[in-house]
Structures are given as C-alpha cells and as structure tokens.
Design a protein that fits this description.
- With 144 residues, the chain is of the alpha+beta class.
- It contains four helices and five strands.
- The chain has a five-stranded mixed barrel.
- It starts with 5 loop residues before the first helix and ends with a strand.
C-alpha cells in the first residue's frame, strides 16, 4: 500500500465521487471530484499532505459556493421561448360566437378557431370583442 503515491489515491477518490454524481445527478459530487483531482495534481507536484487536503477543501468549497447558486438561478428560470399551448397564454383573440361560463363559445386564436369559456362564469363576451387568453384546458381556451 505504501508503494502507491498519494496522487493515485486522490484520483481514486475523484473517481469514487464521480460514481454518485452519475447515479444521483447531484452536481455537488462533481465539484468534490474536481477538488480531489486538484489535490491529485498538488500531490503529483510534490505538495505535502496538509497542502493536498487544503487544496481539496478550497477548490471544492469554492466550486460549491460559486457554481451552485448560478446553477440554481438557471434552473429556476422559465424557458425564453414558449411553445405549444404555453405560447398561446396571454395572447389576444377575437370572439366568433358568444363566450360565457358554459364553454359553448368560439374564438379565433392564432389563426385557428378554439372553443372558449369565460374565466368569470358571470361574464359574457359578444361577437367581435377582443379577449385575452388566460389558460388552455384541453381544447378550450379560458378567456377574460
């Protein structure tokens, strides 16, 4: 065991941290693995054990402190390009047949004719009136 250099042990540690990264998809394991790889480089360059552990801790902590908040921000952002039904929400439409809370009305939305119902069951929209699409439920547009 003493014949194996410290840098090899750090690489084994980095690989061992890479396994849960792949299995759990938790990026923190990848950041710890990069810290272990940096410690392996330090060991390969002749750094003592204290310096190796210090490099591992500093690199791992720095990556977690910097990369993790950036990744969380990107994960929380909505896609910039809405497609499908999501793209229709917020659009304006023209009433073709009277729209009320019953769902029997018709609107022209994005060049297509959709069934529609009013968001407020007591509200009614007459032919030719412009309405805003609030939501889509199945094939029915919810308007106001």
């Amino acid at each position: 065991m003493n014949d194996i250099n410290a840098w090899v042990w750090w690489l084994v540690g980095a690989a061992a941290l890479g396994i849960p990264l792949v299995v759990t998809a938790m990026p923190e394991f990848g950041m710890l693995a990069l810290g272990a790889a940096a410690a392996a480089v330090t060991a390969g360059l002749g750094g003592d054990v204290v310096l190796q552990v210090l490099v591992f801790a500093v690199v791992s902590f720095s990556l977690i402190a910097v990369v993790r908040p950036v990744a969380a921000r990107h994960r929380a952002q909505r896609p910039q390009l809405a497609t499908g039904v999501e793209a229709l929400k917020g659009k304006q439409a023209i009433v073709l047949e009277r729209v009320d809370g019953s769902g029997d009305g018709r609107i022209k939305l994005g060049g297509e004719i959709w069934s529609a119902r009013a968001l407020d069951a007591g509200q009614a929209y007459e032919v030719g009136q412009e309405v805003d699409v609030v939501d889509i439920e199945g094939a029915t547009a919810i308007v106001m």
